[in-house]
């Protein structure tokens, strides 16, 4: 029935600052930047993957009341709106080093996990992003079973 | 770009991220308050107001959550797990762990199963909190 995920929205507090971060710093590219009068339709994507876009949306009227927008802004800056995106890379440690040198605010250094190597960062507004170098999930081993008391 | 309240949120979030990142270090309120550019007393009050628990409680439960992950995902001895997450005393670690989780570290390890989700979700959803324990379904 479905063929993919085309766009998901991330609330940002300022689209110019969002552009500076997501494009100039992270290296994503602009796929749409259209002033539609009622809103600025601004999407970015990983280079070479224009079919999978992130809409950088500013909360505010008339989409929502000023009061609701203030609540959303508060949640963004408290880091309470979940994970904005999990980006994949072929080399997590090199990506971390390159972005850290640009002053990106990392919340986790690259760490080996069962599913790969990943690290985490925040955008200027408080949104959480992860960068993952994926590996195939490993099978459960006899050592796991012994440790769990099942063998 | 930020209102004063949002700017305060953002600075407090940086301090909370520092706890999440450096939980094994001997963190204290003055050093965390410095991250947020606040006085220690104001920081402690505002952290609790914004995140619903004190910085110390947040740190303690982050350490316990990370201990759970190590017990679940590695074969490290409990003594090493305690030290890795910031406890010098095995006795203090075991008492705190049992009080928060409801089981001893050894028993927890026996019962635990791997969590097939990126670590950020595990950290967010399995950290016991003072305003609501992880749901039974989410608890590994």
Give an overview in words:
- The complex is a heterodimer of chains A (151) and B (140).
- Chain A has 151 residues and is an alpha/beta fold.
- Chain A has one domain (7-147): 2,3-Dihydroxybiphenyl 1,2-Dioxygenase, domain 1, CATH 3.10.180.10.
- Chain A has helices spanning 15-25, 66-77, 92-101, 142-147, and strands spanning 7-11, 29-35, 40-45, 53-57, 83-88, 105-113, 116-122, 128-134.
- Chain A has a four-stranded mixed sheet with strand order 1-4-3-2. In chain A, strands 5-8-7-6 form a four-stranded mixed sheet.
- In chain A, strand 2 (29-35) and strand 3 (40-45) form a beta hairpin.
- The mean pLDDT of chain A is 92.
- Chain B is mainly alpha-helical.
- Chain B folds into two domains: 4-56; 60-126, Homeodomain-like (Arc Repressor Mutant, subunit A, Orthogonal Bundle).
- In chain B, 64% of the residues lie in helices and 0% in strands.
- Chain B has helices at 4-21, 29-35, 40-51, 55-73, 78-84, 90-101, 105-111, 119-126.
- In chain B, helix 1 (4-21) packs across helix 2, helix 2 packs across helix 3 and helix 4 (55-73) crosses helix 7.
- Chain B starts with a helix and ends in a 14-residue tail after the last helix.
- The mean pLDDT of chain B is 89.
- The A-B interface holds A 13-14, 17, 70, 73-74, 77-79, 83, 86, 105-109, 111, 113-115, 118, 120, 122, 125-126, 128, 130, 132, 137, 140, 143-144, 147-149 and B 1-3, 5-7, 9-10, 12-14, 16-17, 20-21, 50-51, 73, 75, 109-114, 116, 118-121.
């Amino acid at each position: 029935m479905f063929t993919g995920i085309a766009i998901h929205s991330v609330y940002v507090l300022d689209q110019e600052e969002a552009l500076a971060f997501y494009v100039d710093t992270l290296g994503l590219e602009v796929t749409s930047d259209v002033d539609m009068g009622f809103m600025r339709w601004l999407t970015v994507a990983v280079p070479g993957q224009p079919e999978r876009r992130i809409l950088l949306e500013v909360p505010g009227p008339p989409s929502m009341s000023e009061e609701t927008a203030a609540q959303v802004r508060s949640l963004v800056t408290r880091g309470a709106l979940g994970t904005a995106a999990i980006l994949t890379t072929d080399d997590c440690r090199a990506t971390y080093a390159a972005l850290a040198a640009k002053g990106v605010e990392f919340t986790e250094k690259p760490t080996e996990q069962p599913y790969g190597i990943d690290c985490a960062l925040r955008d200027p507004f408080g949104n959480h992003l992860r960068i993952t170098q994926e590996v195939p999930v490993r099978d459960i081993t006899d050592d796991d079973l012994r440790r769990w008391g099942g063998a | 770009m930020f209102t004063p309240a949002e700017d305060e949120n953002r600075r407090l979030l940086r301090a909370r991220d520092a706890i999440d990142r450096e939980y094994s270090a001997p963190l204290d309120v003055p050093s965390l308050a410095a991250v947020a550019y606040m006085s220690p007393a104001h920081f402690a009050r505002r952290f609790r107001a914004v995140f619903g628990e004190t910085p110390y409680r947040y740190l303690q439960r982050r350490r316990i959550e990370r201990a759970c992950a190590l017990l679940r995902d590695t074969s490290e001895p409990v003594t090493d797990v305690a030290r890795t997450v910031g406890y010098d005393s095995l006795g203090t670690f075991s008492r705190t762990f049992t009080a928060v989780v409801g089981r001893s570290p050894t028993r927890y390890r026996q019962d635990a199963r791997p969590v097939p989700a990126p670590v950020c979700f595990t950290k967010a959803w399995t950290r016991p909190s003072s305003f609501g324990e992880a749901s039974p379904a989410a608890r590994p």
